């Protein structure tokens, strides 16, 4: 099996932004599943990479983002998936995990051949990241129960697009292997 990494997208979040209420509702279902995947990846010694929006805070880093999220009203959505000391962390400013980030270089350095995308939002950051992985010839797995959405109908369409147009393997989280 190719070396696989778990990628956790935008889950270090205070949920105090536009559309946060709908996203939170979906995240409440996804967080326990993501937490289980993180634990399974750690047990299998598979890399866990957090790629997180900096929310326009240009002096932020992993510690600052985690601290703010854990101090917020919705810390319960962050606590189960806090990065451990072995996790890698990439800060992004746009929707795609690849856009102007060192992620592609990191994947090559770590000899990672395919990625499992989890996190939020399915119809935005997950979709755009899957497309960017596809054009880089990086195979993608998307566990449908480990991604959160703002708009359910758009999320379902996005998952279908990823599967049909980007050759993503869309599965249930318990089908993911590391």
Task: Write a concise synopsis of the structure shown.
With 178 residues, this protein is of the alpha/beta class. The chain has helices spanning 20-43, 62-71, 103-109, 122-135, 152-165, and strands spanning 4-9, 48-53, 88-92, 114-120, 140-143, 147-148, 169-171.
Query: How many separate structural domains?
Result: 1
- State the distance separating the first and last CA atoms: 8 Å
Helix-strand sequence: EHEHEHEHEEHE
What do we call the CATH homologous superfamily? Isochorismatase-like
CATH architecture heading:
3-Layer(aba) Sandwich
Radius of gyration: 15 Å
Roughly how much helix do the residues carry, as a percent range? Answer: 25-40%
Range of strand content: 15-25%
Mind describing the biggest β-sheet?
A: 7 strands, parallel
Number of strands: 7
CATH first level: which class? Alpha Beta
**Structural class estimated from helices and strands:** alpha/beta
What is the number of helical segments per DSSP (H or I, 4+ residues)?
5
CATH topology: Rossmann fold
- Bulk shape: globular
